[in-house]
User: Fold these one by one.
Assistant:
Number 1:
Amino acid sequence: MATKPRTIFDDDRSASASEPGDGSVAPSTPASTPDDAGGASATSAASATSAASASSETARSQTVGPSARGRRRGIAGWGPVLLVRAAHPGQAVLTALGLGVAAALAGRPARELALVVATVLVGQAILGWHNDLVDEDRDRVHHRAHKPVADGRLDPGTVWFALACGVLLVVPLAISGGVVAGLCYLASVLVGLLGNVVGRRGLLSFLPWAISYGLYPAFLSYGGWGGQADGNPPQPVMVALAALLGVGVHVLTALWGLVADNADGWTYLPLRLGARLGATTLLVATVCYLVLVVAGLLYAGHRVGLSR
């Protein structure tokens, strides 16, 4: 019967099992041969090499990994980046691009398109900053994500300063497209600011959105290049459809905060619609509504144009 080859672990166990003085005789350990010594040395060297490699990899992961993550966290916590996040950049960019496309379809030259987009971006940033300042306490209570003012990463004083700079910038930008056009856009921003603090909790919360968006066709139709630009009044159907678009955007942007708004006792239109239809159904209905309104704007613009 073949015997199992002994190993160093077998010898250790045998030695520990036969303590001196227990009356047993410890088995003798065969002398190591040169081959055995060489194999043990090779095994020890390989183990040492593996251990050194593992230690090196661990050291690299502990130094490079956290530093890279720290750099990413550092960029995300950089003041200008936080200011952009507090400005509601998604809504700002979409609104600016939408008005830019409308201006392009109306035949405005490239420099006027750039002026329209820049003016709207600044105006929307002002509205976003003001909204986060007004909602600072509510956002903190409800632990809303991506709110650097509420979670303390962005000082409110910094946001107020940026907002004031934005106002000083948006006025000359708006007037550069014509006095009447500029006043129409500034009026839409003012209505949006009032909508952040007045009437937003009740059934008529959609009115500031309707009025603000309803002023956009006038901003485009009266606009041009230079402060002396003087266009024509917008088509009434374009004003009406733009106002309806504002109502739909109001409902869409409110969907993500319905639970918190309900907890705070709000009774505004999106919340009432959500209670009747459910959030998912309301989302689908709102998207369909917005698609129809945009299609109506495109059709009306093709049939009667933007201006009278």
Number 2:
Amino acid sequence: MNCDSNERRSSRSIYYVNFFEEAKRRWMVLGVLTTVALAVLAPQVGAPGGLLHAEYLSYLPLTYIYYKAGKSRTSKSRVRLYTLTVLHANVGALVVCVVTVSAMSTTLDRRVIEGAILASTGRPCAWLPVSLLSCNTVPTLAAVNYAVSLLLSPLTHYFLCGQIPIPPLGGVVFTSVATLAPFALGHYTSKPESESWSRKACGLAVLYAECCALLRDAEGSLYVTDVIATLLLAVWCVVGTAASGALYARGGLLSAAEARALLLVATPKATHIGWSDVCFPAGMSRLPAVFMAPAQALLLAAVFTTERTDQTNKSDQRILPR
């Protein structure tokens, strides 16, 4: 009798899940979900001109993210990684989006289709991969990808809408200084750090501000079918772009660690359109970006913030091909 009860207890213990430990491991995923929920419930609070004046306060967490990234150990990698990352972010993402839009064209509004395609050609999002820093090559890779996009993104917009949006020189200079100055300060004045929960928490603050701004810009009369279809479109575009990056590792072009770095840098797109408003008017065409912002953050948080993934990345960093 005792043997039977012991066997039942042991069999039940195999399937025991410590929810507290699982929440600790995946706190970033829960944080993304909570951040998006808060933005949906009260977008006016975090939108520009709102109670928090996020158009100014958001620079504080951004500065801290780049400062902490500067404290991490940086390393170079093969030219092939930089080339494939740039091509995947600026060409591959557009191809994936066009294929997805073609498959869903009968259920989507024309403005949503235009907004999704233009969002896929936007500038890369640098703060998200840096806040989730899991590979020593990420800062350099993100910088190169952003610099090349300043040339490729206007050309892509010209091909799509016949106009070349020129980024204002003042904005480019301000972004460069606001990014490079804290990064250099952290790199030259502090000891190296490889992991920081505070950097990820600041990433959640920036995500909240961006979601609030996008929700306010996309306000208007929307049908439930349009919202659901746009949500599916955004999710499939982000997942398709991320999943196609794994083909480089399977094809032997990149190592597993390099493919993860490419996934982290090439997947997210900047949701703040800024100087490309000429091709991206406010309204319903902004709706895809509303869903892409949390979708890309949630996907990357789920992939890169568990303990098992962190341990794998640390071991892979030592064997990155030079």
Number 3:
Amino acid sequence: MVKNIILFLLFTTSVFMLPAQKYQSDFDTADSLGIYEYRLSKDGITKPAKDKVALLKSSDHFSKSNFLNQFKVHLKSGVSNSSALWTLDSIVVRELNESSQQIENNSRQTLATQNGGHMMIVKDYNWVNKDNHWLISGASNYSFSDEGRLDSLEFQKYVTINYRMYTKNYYGYEDGLLIAEWSMEKFDEYDDWEKVSRLEYSYDSISRLKQVNTMEWDYFYYRWSTFEILEYDYDSLGNIGVETAYNYDSYEMVRTKKYEIVYSYNLLNLLDEITEYVEGWGEDNFIPDRKVKYDYDASLNITAETLFIWDYDLNDWLEDTRKQHFSRNSEDQIYETLVQSWDNNWNDVASTKFFAVNSIVPEEVENQEFVYAFLPMLDFYNIVADHIESYSYSDGEWLNSATTSYHFKQNSPVGIYTQDLADVRIFPNPATDYIKIQGAQLQQYECIVYDLSGRMLIHKQGNGDLKLDLSDLNASYYLIEIRKEGKRILMDRFLKY
């Protein structure tokens, strides 16, 4: 479990950024001279969601290898998953002008499946107001092996409708571990592919990542030449402790230290701080430059991520940016993040609110492994966030900056009792001490109540109307499931005050 928590937190350094929250600064990317690109940045703190596509493009090879070593899609023989109730049709992001609150930009993603799940195609579109239609801007083609592992990923960028630029990444595995990754590119569909870069991964005797060599193609010697080496060390409990990067001169066969990242953990073995050391004054002098600290509640849920910048004059850490996490149980809202910046005190900058409109549980989504890995979709407490609202704080008020809507098609799996569903009522909602299930045609069924983590709390047999006692339940959201002959016929959500 600790390993999964660590991976989740590490992913926050390279996660998907919804267009709503473009909170940037000079700390986000490489400096003006292109000398050094920070691994810990304000951008990594402020992004509201995850994106493994960004991870695959990043230099966070530790998180990338852990993700690909564990990830597999469930391949089908061209047959839809009959247990999936929802199929994602598209994701639409609407960016708003904060002053007028009018839509400034619309973007859209769609997903298509081919060859029984061996190929997944994600297409990106932008809305063209003058032509009143969606115009494709890019496409990502994911290819999976027979074992369900990511085999290759091809990016197509549409410069014009008839001209595309291509980049393709390939992934090689041995004994279930990622051992090689290489990329190629071409600037037209008729061009030949050109080699760009190659990475080689090596592991210790217990399959922990030990070293990554980054290479580029040397056209003079016609070979791959290493230019960067990453090494990883672990603590006594098996947690990653230190990541060290070196620039490597393959001609002189000399390496020089580039940066060092140190991970520390609290008494519960949860990730506590990540500190980045960069080159200072003098040879082999590396100094702390920035760090991210994580805070947790009593249930070990993350409550805050705070970025600190080292002040060389004060010789101390100064707060810079933080993101707070809140669980919500009001109407359809299930989660919220709040971004703040430090200027003698914490000032609100941006907020992202997550809603569950359709009360979808992750297991009900078609192609769920792929959707949750490679599309900007999140779930909280086993409920899918299918609507997101982003806000920015300006002149003492919150302004809506964007909305993200997830559009699903609801399937009709074989075995659903449509006549029974027609007159089923679950009320009152919100409830206090009890909730009733009514349905004139509903006979011989099971009624199950779960908390949002999926833990079963109530299990009753029904034959006609049923009244459930909720007096032992705390005030919160709950899931209620109706099953008949072992098959789910209804899943809904209710709020207990």
